[in-house]
Amino acid sequence: MSYSYLFKYIIIGDTGVGKSCLLLQFTDKRFQPVHDLTIGVEFGARMITIDQKQIKLQIWDTAGQESFRSITRSYYRGAAGALLVYDITRRETFEHLTTWLEDARSYSSSHMTIMLIGNKSDLDTRREVQHSEGEEFARQHGLIFMETSAKTAANVEEAFIGTAREIYEKIKAGTVDVTNEANGIKLGAQQPGTFPNRLTPEGPKKESCC
Ligand SMILES: Nc1nc2c(ncn2[C@@H]2O[C@H](COP(=O)(O)OP(=O)(O)OP(=O)(O)O)[C@@H](O)[C@H]2O)c(=O)[nH]1
Ligand SMILES: [Mg+2]
C-alpha cells in the first residue's frame, strides 16, 4: 500500500515493561500474557491516517535487557520517534528512565520525538509510580506523556498516533528535514519501490539481529 510518509519508531525501556505487548496490541489488536523476552530487535508496521495522509509506521521493538544495550543503541540513529516505556507497578523501571533518555539523546538525531509511556495502567492497585510523577518527569525533559495498558488497549492507539502527529507537525512547521533519512522519515510518493521487501509485512516479526 502506498503512503505519503514513512516514520521510523523505536520502543525502549527496561525488560518486562510491556514494549512488545504494546507493539502487538497496536499492530494486531491482541495481548500476549506471557513474557516472551525479546532477543535483539523485532519489528512491526502499521498504516495510519493523519490529515487525510497515509503514514506508514515502521516500529523497532528493542530488548530491554542490559546485555542487548549496544544493539539497541545502533537503532536510535534514523528514528523519528521513540516510545520510552516504564511499568507503573515497578518503580525501578521509572528510576532507570534517566539512563534511557541519556542514550536516546546521545545516539539519535536531535529531532527525535520522544513519548514517555507509563504502561500497565490496568494494574492500578499495584501502582508504585503515580500518574503525576510521570507527568512531571515528562515536563522536565520535554517529552509527551501518556499512561497505557497493552492489556486493555487503553491509550495504545493514542500513544502511537500521538507521536506521529507530533512528527507530522514538525514536518509541517519545517523544523525537520524530510530529505535526510537520518531523521527517520521517508517520503513515499517520491521514492517508489525503494522500501526493502523484508520490512513490508504487518505485525511483529522476529529479526535475526546484527
Ligand atoms: N497487566 C498487564 N500486563 C502487561 C501489560 N503489558 C505487558 N504486560 C505483561 O508484562 C510482561 C512483559 O511484557 P513484554 O511486552 O514481553 O515486555 P518487554 O518490555 O517487551 O520485555 P523485553 O522484551 O524483555 O524487553 C508480559 O507478561 C506481559 O503480558 C499491561 O499493560 N498490563
Ligand atoms: Mg519485548
Query: Which structural class best describes the helix and strand composition?
Result: alpha/beta
How big is the Rg?
16 Å
Arithmetic mean pLDDT:
90
State the helix count: 6
Give the helix level as a range of percent: 25-40%
Low-confidence stretches: 190-203
User: What is the β-strand count?
Assistant: 8
Bound molecules: guanosine-5'-triphosphate, magnesium ion
N- and C-termini, Cα separation = 28 Å
Shape: globular
**Can you write the helix and strand succession as a string?**
EHEEHEHHEHEHEE
Sketch the major β-sheet: 8 strands, mixed
- What proportion of the residues form beta strands (DSSP E)? 15-25%
What does this structure look like?
This protein is of the alpha/beta class and 210 residues long. The chain contains six helices and eight strands. Strands 1, 2, 3, 4, 5, 6, 7 and 8 form an eight-stranded mixed β-sheet that branches. The protein is globular. About 7% of the residues have low confidence. Guanosine-5'-triphosphate binds next to helix 1. Magnesium ion binds next to helix 1.
